[in-house]
Amino acid sequence: MSDLVIGVDGGGTKTVAWLAPLVDDGTSQILGRGIAGPGNPRGAGFDVAKDNIAAAIAAAFEEASLPRTTVARACIALAGAGRTTEQEQLAAWATEQRIAKRVRICGDAEPILAAAAADNCGIALIAGTGSLAWGRNELGETARCGGWGYLLGDDGSAYGIAISGLRAAMRAADGRGPETNLLPHFLHKLGALTADALIPKVYSPEMTRDKLAALSQVVFDQAATDEVAGSIVEAGVEDLAEMVVSLARQLNLSTAAYTLAMAGGVFQHQLSYTDRVLRAVLDRMHGLHLKRPGQFAIVEEPVQGAVALARAAQ
Question: How far is Cα 234 from Cα 228, in angstroms, rounded to an integer?
Fold first, then answer.
């Protein structure tokens, strides 16, 4: 299969694999698509992530009605794999599995920018289960901001907003924080009658990180009418905008047309939040006299960028 490539995009909730021709004929032809569970090696564990990558790739071959075999090139882009330690471990596994003759491992932000910017210059901002900003300037220099994982960061993400909402609800139950409609709505959502009953619900082994992140919907739903929920959402907006501004400073982005590519379930499903983040970025850039992005894009299929990076893999 020397004329095929594989692109993989793995996050905290799912892993997507696309099988495509090595040469792009301009039709964006995809031969097979596969989907499996979480692909974040730090969030789900390396063994789980590897199993899901393999399952997604196998499903892509199956949809294409082709036997699973080694392809020419592959790009495996994963949340939690933006650093050398993770990349080396996953590259060794991919070589062992004979996924492709040439394999590139990278974080999940790089293909987002590749999918949106022909010159690969700009900033990719992710707000899904987790959060991260990654950028490249016209000199090829790269930098990242955020992406510290659910214990150390993930500010502005679905998980971060959900946890902030749950903690605010608990403070209200204790009488230590302001009253909020979040508490009764979390109780209803989780099928609990009292605040105490939330403990076994939240700490249940079945309450995965992505299921916790899905509870952010409660906070978003109440943000317009509940002061506490509104302040949590606004804090998320500010956190994400700060990530972009930090990268613009670090990379000294000067290209007038550089791209801000936004991806992740939060941006796709919370359009008001997306708009607020974008406005906050532009306001901050203007106030700090930084060059603002020349174009913007919501990337719905980051795996498209992984396919492009696979084709370019050396």
Answer: 10
CATH topology of domain 120-299: Nucleotidyltransferase; domain 5 (3.30.420)
For residue 297, the number of C-alpha atoms closer than 13 Å in the C-beta half-sphere is 22
Q: Report the alpha-carbon angle 49-54-60, nearest 5.
A: 125
pTM: 0.84
- CB 38 within 8 Å of CB 48: yes
Tell me: domain 4-108, CATH 3.20.20.10, correct?
no
> Is the distance from CB of 112 to CB of 261 less than 8 angstroms?
yes
Residue-wise pLDDT for 68-108, tens only, equals 999 999 999 998 888 888 999 999 999 999 999 999 999 88
* Burial zone of 112 (CB within 10 Å; 0-12 exposed, 13-18 middle, 19+ buried): buried
pLDDT the model gives residue 289: 81
